[in-house]
């Protein structure tokens, strides 16, 4: 097993707002290993993008971060801003969603890529522009289009430009935040396979942030499922897809086109005042009384499979003797065919 390139330990991210404190990420712990692609899955607003930006400290000054984010032997939360600027793009790259809003509309795409080489590699203008042209060719765009501006590109081509920017300095870790959002199915797959192919070629690591469970299952090595700011399930991608252990993961799978476009009742909870107990219990078809009272911890089952659910625990914990309600409940079983208690 390879060592982790990034280790997040008990991360809490919160924001002060007029409505109260938004707890965007709570007690998040995960690792990304050398050469590994980790998929981070969840609905819009669950805290995925916040986590991605927290790693590079790209959140607003209103954000409060607690915990540890270790990149190799560096704690990114305590690193001086001067060192963070040198690390961003060079050691950890990022592909942000919505490239039309991220790219500078008054600079050509070639110049925007060349800026990275001029800052991190201290290259001259001509050499940097040559390298920018090579990156455009690498992502399937003619180097002659380096003189074109963002508005002259289609959505798929803009996404390729973002890939070129994210991978320009060959970072050890790439954060790809919804890299296929808003693209048609064919283009989406092309972009996703392009990113993964380049990452694999460089033996780099990647955090793939997406709401598309099918895409993550196809491209990622492991998957972490996030709901309302918390990790609720984590394991090998093929195991998550074939045998989900958390009701939320199962509902996500049932919503896929090939699974019948199933819907989940209700809405995600407020991150200002999340419900007591399990945060998914108000929408869960298999909830029982204890689900609204006891907040489940993220526990390891076996083989690096983690689950945050009272129903899916293997056997009864000794400490539940003080909670007789739990000991009376059958264990949840999940499979492709459905979910039941026995």
Describe this structure in words.
The chain has about 350 residues and is of the alpha/beta class. Among the domains are: about 100-170, no CATH class; about 245-340, no CATH class. Helix content is about 30%, strand content about 25%. The strands form three sheets. An eight-stranded mixed β-sheet has the order 6-7-8-3-9-10-12-11, with helices on both faces. Strands 2-1-4-5 form a four-stranded antiparallel β-sheet, covered by helices on one side. A two-stranded antiparallel sheet has the order 13-14. Helix 4 (about 110-120) packs across helix 5 (about 125-140).
Q: What features would you highlight for this structure?
A:
342 residues; alpha/beta; 29% helix; globular; ABC_transporter-like_CS; membrane; ATP-binding
Tally of alpha and pi helices: 11
* Beta-strand share of residues: 15-25%
Biggest pleated-sheet summary: 8 strands, mixed
- Tally of extended strands? 14
The low-confidence parts are: 314-332
> What overall form do the CA principal axes indicate?
globular
Tell me the span between the first and last alpha carbons.
Answer: 35 Å
- Tell me the strand order in the biggest sheet: 6-7-8-3-9-10-12-11
Helical content, roughly?
A: 25-40%
Quick summary of this structure?
The chain is an alpha/beta fold and 342 residues long. The chain has helices spanning 48-55, 81-87, 99-102, 109-120, 125-138, 155-167, 185-201, 213-219, 237-242, 247-254, 324-327; strands at 4-17, 20-33, 37-41, 63-71, 74-75, 92-95, 173-177, 205-210, 222-227, 230-236, 299-300, 306-307, 332-335, 338-341. Among the domains are: 102-169, no CATH class; 247-341, no CATH class.
């Amino acid at each position: 097993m390879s060592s982790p390139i990034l280790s997040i330990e008990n991360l809490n991210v919160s924001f002060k707002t007029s409505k109260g404190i938004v707890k965007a990420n709570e007690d998040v712990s995960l690792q990304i290993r050398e050469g590994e692609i980790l998929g981070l899955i969840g609905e819009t607003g669950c805290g995925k993008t916040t986590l991605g930006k927290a790693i590079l400290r790209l959140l607003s000054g209103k954000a409060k971060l607690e915990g540890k984010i270790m990149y190799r032997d560096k704690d990114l939360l305590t690193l001086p801003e001067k060192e963070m600027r040198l690390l961003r793009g060079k050691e950890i790259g990022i592909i942000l969603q919505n490239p039309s809003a991220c790219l500078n509309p008054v600079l050509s795409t070639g110049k925007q890529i060349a800026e990275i080489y001029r800052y991190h590699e201290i290259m001259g203008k001509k050499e940097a522009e040559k390298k920018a042209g090579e990156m455009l060719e690498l992502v399937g765009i003619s180097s002659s289009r380096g003189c074109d501006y963002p508005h002259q590109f289609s959505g798929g081509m803009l996404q390729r430009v973002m890939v070129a920017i994210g991978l320009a300095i060959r970072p050890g870790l790439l954060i790809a935040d919804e890299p296929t959002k808003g693209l048609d199915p064919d283009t989406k797959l092309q972009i996703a396979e392009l990113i993964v192919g380049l990452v694999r070629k460089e033996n780099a690591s990647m955090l793939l942030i997406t709401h598309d469970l099918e895409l993550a299952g196809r491209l990622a090595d492991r998957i972490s499922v996030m709901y309302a700011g918390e990790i609720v399930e984590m394991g090998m991608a093929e195991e998550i897809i074939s045998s989900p252990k958390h009701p939320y993961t199962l509902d996500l799978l049932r919503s896929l086109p090939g699974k019948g476009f199933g819907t989940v009742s209700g809405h995600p909870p407020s991150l200002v005042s999340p419900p007591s107990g399990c945060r998914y219990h108000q929408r869960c078809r298999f909830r029982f009384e204890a689900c609204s009272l006891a907040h489940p911890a993220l526990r390891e089952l076996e083989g690096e499979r983690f689950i945050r659910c009272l129903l899916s625990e293997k056997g009864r914990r000794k400490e539940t003797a003080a909670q007789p309600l739990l000991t009376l409940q059958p264990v949840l079983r999940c499979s492709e065919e459905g979910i039941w208690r026995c």
